Give the backbone structure.
Amino acid sequence: MSDTVVMAKRLVKRFGAFEAVRGIDFTIALGECFGLLGPNGAGKSSTIRMICCLTDVSQGTLTVLGWPAHPGQRAVKRQLGVVAQDDNLDPSLTVRENTEIHGRFYGLDSCEARRRSDELLAFMQLEGRANEQVRALSGGMRRRLVIARALMGNPRLLILDEPTTGLDPQARLLVWGKINELKRQGVTILLTTHYMDEAERLCDQLVVVDHGEILERGSPGDLIHRVVGDDCLEVPGVDERQARAMAQFLDDYPVWTDRQADSLLVYGGQMDEVIDQLHWKNLLPRTYYRRRASLEDVFLKLTGRELRD
Amino acid sequence: MAVKQAPQEWAQWSNGALMVFRRDFLAWVKYYKSSVILNFGEPLTNLLALGFGLGTYVAKMAGVPFIDFIGPGLLAVTAMNAVTFDMAFEGYDRLNENRIYQSMITAPLTVGQIVAGEYLWEGIRSLLYGAVFIVVLTALNLVKSWWALLLPLPLFVTGIMFAAPALWVASSAKNHEQLFYYFTLFITPMYLFSGVFFPITHMPGLVRDVIVVTPLFHVVNIVRALVLGHLYPGLWGDALWMILYAVLFGLVPVRVLGRRLAE
C-alpha cells in the first residue's frame, strides 16, 4: 500500500448492457500527478466515480489508499479531495461558508475549519473575497474556490476533473502554479483534462483511454517520443494532390504523415534532412512550420480525429 | 472494542447530519425575511378574509366561533406549506441544479446523514413558521388554552412528515413542472378537505375514509385540540398516525435519493 495510492486491476464498469470501462489496469504512485486522458465518453468519468466511491465496481478490483473502493467506503472518501467537473458550489453561502461547511462535512471542528479555510483561501488568493456571495465570483474565482474547498479535508489524493475548463489564460496559469505547489507538498493528484498542454505540463504519468480501454501509457515525454516522434513539420494550405505527392516521396524516410484539415503533418526524426529533400524536390510550399511534437499530436493519433459528443 | 466504538460512530454520524442542518440554517439566514412573509401571508389572508368575512355569516362551526375553528387549522396548513414548498423546490435544485447533494456525498457524508439533516431542518422550520403564526393567533385572542404550550411537539413532527414526501417527489421529478403535480394533486386537496375549514363529520362515508388516512387531517385534529383546549382520547390515535407517517415516508427518500446519487 505504502507507495501505491490507487490500483485498478481489470476494472470494469457496466451500465446495463453498455460497458463504459472495459477491464483497465493502472496504478497511481504516491506523490505523482497521474493524468487520465481521453475524448468525451471514453470512460474517464465512470473511472473517477468508482475511485471516489460513488458508484459500484462492476467487475475487477479497485483499491484506493489501501481500501477496496465501493459506495459507502467512508475510510476512502475521508482522504479524498474532489474537484468535480461542474463546480457544485453552494450558491446560498458565502465564500468562507462554502469552505468551512465542507470542512465540517469532513469532520473538522469549527476552529479547525475556520483556520484551514483562512489558510486555503489565502493559498488560492481569495482571502479578499471571503465574505462575498458565491454568485458574485468570476469563473476563475469559482474554480479556485472549488479547489480550496476540495483541500479542506487535507486529502491524500486530490482528484481534479477538468480543473481549468472555461478559464482564461491568466486563471489557468494561476491554477497550474497552485497544482505544482501541491505536488511539491507531496499531494498525489489524479487529473483529467481536455487540454493537452495542461497534461504535458502537470502530469508525471498518464494513460490515454478511449471506448473504455487504455490505448497508451507513460510519461508525456516518453509518449511523444514513442508514439509520434520528437519533431513535427506542419505544412498548411496543401491540397490533396500535393499532399499525396509529399507523402509518397516521404515513404522512404523514417517518418509518418497525417492530414489535419488542409494541413499536412510530418512526424518523426531527422527532420532537417526531410525538409532539405522536400525543398530539393520542390515539394515544399513557402510556408511551413517546424515544431516539437506535442501530447496533442499523440492524443489525436491515438484517438482519431472524428468528433465526439 | 466494538462496544466502545459504537458511541463514537454515532457521534460522527450525527455530527455529519447536524452539519447538513447547519448548512440549511446558514442559507436560510440570508433570505428569511422574504421567506417568512411569503409563507405566512397566505394563511393570514385566509384567516382574516374567511374568519372575519365568512365568519359573520357562519356563526358557529362544531360548537365554536368560525374564526376560532379555522385559526388552528390554518396553523397546521402554515407548517405543511412552509416545509413542502421548501423541501420540494430546494431538494430538486440541490440534486439537479446546483448539485449540492453531490458535493455532500463526495465529502464523506452518507445519504442517511443528508436526509436526516434535511428532516431536522424542516422540523425546525415548521416550528419557526408555526411560531410566527401562533403569535398572530395569540394577538387575535384565538389561543384559548395553556395546552398550546405543547404545540412545538406536533409542529416538529409535522415538519418531518411533510419533508419526507416532498424530498421523495424532489428526488424523482424530472423537472420543476412535475413538482406542481404533487402540489395540485396532494397538497391542495389536503388543504381543502382535512377539516381546516369545516369538520369532516358530515362528508360522505367514502370521502371520510380517504381523509382519515391523509396526514394533514391528524395534524389539524391535534393542533386544534391544543389551541382550543378541547382534549379527548382519540388524539392519541392522531399522534400515532403522525409518527407512523414520519417514519414510513421518512425512509423512502433514503432509497430514492441514494439511487439518484449513485447514478
